[in-house]
Amino acid sequence: MDFKPKAIFLDMDGTILNHQNFVSVNTKEIIDTIRQKGIYVFIATGRAVDEIERVVPEGFEVDGVVTSNGMSGYLGEESLFEHSLERKLVKKIIEKAREHKIYYELFPYGSSRVTLKQDQEYVEAEISGDKPESVGINEWLSRQQAIKEEIEWAEKIEGEKFSKFYFFAKSKEQINKWKDELDEIKKEIDFTTSISSHHNVEVMVANVNKATGIQQMLEKFGVSVDETLAIGDSDNDIPMLKLVKYPVAMKNASDHIKELAVDVTEYTCDEDGVYHYLKSKFE
Question: Which first-to-last residue range defines the signal peptide (predicted)?
Answer without folding.
Answer: none
